[in-house]
Amino acid sequence: MAAYLKLDHISKTFRRGSSETEVLRDINLVINEGEIVSMIGHSGCGKSTLLNLIAGLIPVTTGAVLLEDREVNAPGPERAVVFQNHSLLPWLTVYDNVALAVDKVFGSSKSRSERRQWILHNLDLVQMAHAKDKRPSEISGGMKQRVGIARALAIEPKILLLDEPFGALDALTRAHLQDSVMQIHATLKNTMIMITHDVDEAVLLSDRIVMMTNGPSATIGDVLSVNLARPRKRLELVADPDYIAAREAVLKFLYERHRFVEAA
Amino acid sequence: MSLAALKPKADHSVTKGQAQVIALKPATSSARRQKLVRMARTFAANVLPPLICAGVIFLIWQIAFGRPGATLPSPLTVWREAQDLIVDPFFRNGPQDIGLGWRTLTSLQRVGIGFGFAAIVGILVGAVIGQSIWAMRGLDPIFQILRTVPPLAWLPISLAAFRDSQPSAIFVIFITSIWPILINTAVGVRNIPQDYRNVAEVLRLNHFEFFWKIMLPSAAPYIFTGLRIGIGLAWLAIVAAEMLTGGVGIGFFIWDAWNSSRLPDIVVALFYIGIVGFVLDRIVGAIGSLVSRGTSAS
Predict the structure, then answer these.
(1) What predicted TM-score, i.e. pTM, was given to this entire model?
(2) How many structural domains is chain A composed of?
(3) Chain A residue with Cα closest to B205
């Protein structure tokens, strides 16, 4: 498979006054179309920075992000982001939040009724069509995140970037949303990059797990392929030897080889 | 032990539930009556205290200035001598003998024009300044100084510039009320969460779309705080400006009444000014809470 997204020798240095901090160094990664790749690492290892670099929200210091062999250095709708804290606009209803994105991206290519159908279709995809007239303050955290995913999906991105999308949710809601993400991926076959803190989440969802070393100057420590057949069922996997092995590998990486010293 | 204690309790709740079901039908009309009583009670609780206080103040005022030879008119004197002004705000007996309602409307028109310009310019310039850290650093101290200049201090300058009283008065309104609008808008724009900016960037909203769809709603609570302070200042300034520029407004009326020693008329005019100022403030406040209900709810 051809390289879909390529991270080519990326490094990122933040400057504040005279002091410089190198957050990321020499990141190389190739992501194929339709893959789910998660990035895991201790806090402060620059995972979110890397995602923001791919999204184009902050510029790279050296290296390049290549999407289908074209360099990207500004944000754009072909790389949709699902933000950690949902980032829905509180003055708009659920429907209007998705409509803001759809009208902007498909305003000229789809008719009004087609756009309406499309918005409702995407809300349906995350099972939120029933709450389309509610405001974000009137729905739960998990529902907000669902709407955030619908908004990102609705602009038909080439890559969906998820920045710890379920980090702020309770375990049960998180499991629900993980199942939804797997279902959506099974239907749409979209490419996703997800940042997570959660080892189980990484193993359950991803085709590959990118493990980051500790910062500063963090880089990719190891990449683990998760060879589990899809569709994956959370209950059946609990006793699956491949699942257990993958889980163990990630845990060993995080707690033996790259223990987070400051956390101790 | 605990089981035995539970059982009678459960039985009790069941019988209670049944009793309620039977009692439901007559309950509807009495519920409506209860609702009416409750509404009347909240109405009384909110309206009676200010009425009583106003009554007490009028009484003290009457006692203090009711004796013959008092320097200021008592409430009864005001009622006797300025009855025409109080009873009919909209009479027209001649070019200079018109009801206070007309005069207030003239003043309101001036305030409307001056404040309208101040709102438009203040929000636009405030949005630009809020977007740029350097504009903020450079201009904020200047605005902070200009905003403390009293309204009337602008009047000679604007009279010199416009050479006419009408645009001068409007300019004074404008320059008085623009600062809080401008400064608050800039702060509101500064405080737009980075998340919303990221959303706008990912969607590639252009400047106009960003201003209209993200900036205005997000900064609305700040903007309306500025507008509310601004309309209060504008109303303060109009009276002072009209006193000096003349014309038809309520401010000039006070000055005219003072020159012809009609103190009761001045008292009536003060009530007009106070009530109109209060209503203006409430209107802007109400629009603000209506517009920004989504933003503040998050």
Answers:
(1) 0.79
(2) 2
(3) A104
